[in-house]
Amino acid sequence: MTPRDRTSRDRVALSAGRGLRARWVGRRLFAEAERGDGPDAGAARRDIARIALTPGHRLRERAREAVAVWWVRDRDPELRDVVLKTRALAPAPPERFVTLALQRRLYECGPLDAPNIAGLLGDPDPDVRERAFAFCREASGPTLHWLWTSVPGPLPGTPLRAALLANDRPAPLGLLDDLWAEWLKTPSEELGAALLRWRRPARADDLEPLSVVALKTPREIVTEPRHRAALIEALTFGDHPLYAIAEQKVLGSEHHGLIEELCAEAMHRPDLARFCRRHRLAPEDPVKRALFFVVTGQPEQYRAIDPDGSLLSLAYASASSRDRARLQEVMVGAGDLDLVRVIVGDDRRARIPAMNLGEIRYLGEQLAARREWEELWALVQDVSIVSGTDLIGLFDGWVPRGDDARRIFEMYLETDRHSVEAALRHFPSGGMPLWRQAKLLFRGRVNDVSFAPDGPYLAVAGSERVAGVFDLRTGGLVERYTGFASSVGRVLHLGDATLVAGERTNRNDRECKVVLCADGGARTLHTTRGSVTSLAAMDESGSFAAATRAGDVVLVGPGGEPVTAVPVRSLRLSGRWPRAIAAHPASRRIAVLSRGLSVAETAAAEAAERRSRTAKPFTVIGQASDVTMEQVAFVDADTLVCAARHGDVKLVRQSGAGLMEIARTVVAKLGGLAASPATGEAVIADRSGRVTVYDGATLEPRESHTSETSHGYTGATISPTGDFLAVGDAAGHADLFDLRVREMPEILRRPLVDLVPRHLGIVGSVLASCPRPVKAALQLLHACLEHRFRFDIEIGDAVQLTAGEYDISL
């Protein structure tokens, strides 16, 4: 034993006592150990290490802590052995965490210690590193959360990231989206394995579908359209691991719609087209399959299923504009496919309405290149004049046979393209304002007007005990009825040259009649005390209803039989008499205004004839007791618009057994109210001379017309077809509006093959009063329609109202 060993032994033994000398030796020993790196300090530390190994020594715990601290700082192998043998722990961080790791005691740490433990992953001692890694790999709960969210955090490529990705427990929800975004952008095997093992999809809208593709089964993916779209999108990821995952799931799916959607997208995406070709995927429908093979560059497969091109022609006809453009692009480049035959198909005229301007121009150029002039001229006559004036310049000296055809041909040549463009600007596609066609100047006061349901005729009720019918094309009187006992206050045209006149009086005790006028004769159908306040057609058979000041609603069947008077109180109305009635012929519903509003259904004419005298003619289906109105009209079977004289306008709708208000507006100086059966719009005329069209669902104003010559509008009537509007003024005149003119923007742009004789009358009405810059284009359109319908037996539908003022006398 060397002297130094004996000295060390002596110091260890001396320091173990309880006396003053022992305490002095202990203090001196620790002081030397802390003094530095000299020989005395090294000897002192070795003595203290012996103390740490000596059971029962007074300074053993202090020695253990000191040895643990010195080892962490200096990494002396001898001190490391002492730390392991004595299970020594440093008293404070960061050294304490190193010794805990060395002792396999990191489980004693709490969540807030996580950042310090993460720092051990770079410790020079391999056992400390391995045990810190194991701790992070097995962490859970708050500790795991702290490890993920510690600063600077588990950055890519760090040991902490590797340990946490090896953990079977997923990262916190707040970080999952970032991890998915990182993997989708820059995939790594380590991160991908963790995300797949955790099986937690992302929550962000742009990441969730792709993460579902990676995690869910094919059966789960295909149930959601957005997940199917993401599965298809994943097939464009190239060498990304998600591509292989998606490929396996697509090929393993039995969902029919998935392959169809994939093929539809492949038509416009080369990467998807390559996938479909590689795996021999195609639409199931033969027509779609033919289109798919052409667009995706599979000519052999296409020729095998469609040698005559018929399938491709059908596919083109039903394809979207996007697919058509793609097919045109491919076929022009292919050169061996006849795009003209594909576009035209077996029925050129049926295809034209669906062709765009580019397709029509291409077709015309191809026909001109083949010098198929007859076919090209037929095409010009079928397309819109917008396309026709564009194609007319393709003819190379050829003219059609026949004087009338040559006249149309020459009009095309003479019509300036700028004239057509001016017409398009004048009639914008967004809408068309109200167009007053004529003004009827009645001599003598006019109480009421009614349009015929079967022609351009207007029935007029005159105050001089006279009623008549005028032809609106000429303004001429075609029927006149006299001999009434009182002024004719109401008139209703039933069609087939038949009208109903209702007398009125200022004396409630005086008798008035409901008179049926037809074939030059008049027949009294009903006599009542007081005026006939309203008339309404119930259906197309000629049945109608009349309201009387005596308090009845009179139902009259076709031809005037039967006649049934029903007291207004049977409609659950408290008023003494009906102020106004309106009917909806398609549903045979009637609306009655008194003190309140009732809507009732009536039986058809045949059923009414069979009905017993004790049966009720009305079945009330809706009622509103708080409606105090004077005018009413049906917008549709379930919706009515009502107006009061002071200007309050309400839109009400059937709701159970009641009528619910759905919209309201106020019109100052309200004059007349009507509703269009064709468009479901409400029309209101006011006493300032303005006519306004309102949306039939919201009462939002759409368009209006203000007259500079009107004395203030007092009434409005729309024809049963919705074609014409007559608005009467205080002076007894009426402004006549051709509502069909609102279709002019669409007519101008539609192919001629898609028009009917009715449109000829509309164009003629517009042409009569259109400005000079657009007249040439409309003259061409009118001539083309006249030529087209010259042999058509329905040419009588081409009703044309002549513009101007008509001085009319009954």
Structural account:
The chain is 41% helix and 23% strand. It is an alpha+beta fold. The strands form seven sheets. Strands 26-27-28-1-29 form a five-stranded mixed beta sheet. It starts with a helix and ends with a strand. Residues 1-6 and 610-614 have low confidence and may be disordered.
Kindly list the characteristics that best describe this protein.
disordered N terminus; 33 helices; alpha+beta; 5-stranded mixed sheet; 4-stranded antiparallel sheet; 810 residues
Low-confidence stretches: 1-6, 610-614
Largest β-sheet summary: 5 strands, mixed
Q: Tell me, what's the shape?
A: elongated
Q: Which band does the percent of strand residues land in?
A: 15-25%
SS elements, strand count? 29
Overall pLDDT confidence:
85
* Secondary structure category: alpha+beta
Radius of gyration of CA atoms, rounded to a whole number: 47 Å
Helix segment count? 33
Distance between the termini: 151 Å
Assembly of the depicted chains: single chain
Helix content: 40-55%
Main sheet: which strands, in order across? Answer: 26-27-28-1-29
Question: What is the topology?
Answer:
Elements: H1 3-14, H2 20-35, H3 39-53, H4 60-74, H5 77-86, H6 95-102, H7 114-119, H8 126-138, H9 141-149, H10 159-166, H11 173-185, H12 189-198, H13 208-215, H14 218-221, H15 225-234, H16 241-252, H17 256-266, H18 270-279, H19 286-295, H20 299-305, H21 310-318, H22 321-334, H23 339-344, H24 348-351, H25 357-369, H26 373-382, H27 385-391, H28 403-414, H29 417-426, E1 436-443, E2 446-451, E3 457-462, E4 466-471, E5 476-481, E6 487-495, E7 498-504, E8 511-518, E9 521-529, E10 532-537, E11 544-548, E12 552-556, E13 563-567, E14 580-584, E15 589-594, E16 596-602, H30 605-610, E17 618-624, E18 631-636, E19 639-643, E20 648-655, E21 658-666, E22 670-675, E23 682-686, E24 690-694, E25 701-706, E26 713-718, E27 724-729, E28 734-738, H31 744-749, H32 757-767, H33 772-788, E29 804-809
Parallel strand pairs: 1-29
Antiparallel strand pairs: 1-28, 2-3, 3-4, 4-5, 6-7, 7-8, 8-9, 10-11, 11-12, 12-13, 14-15, 15-16, 16-17, 18-19, 19-20, 20-21, 22-23, 23-24, 24-25, 26-27, 27-28
Helix pairs in contact: 1-2, 1-3, 2-3, 3-4, 3-5, 4-5, 4-6, 6-8, 8-10, 13-15, 17-18, 19-20, 19-21, 26-27, 28-33, 29-33, 32-33
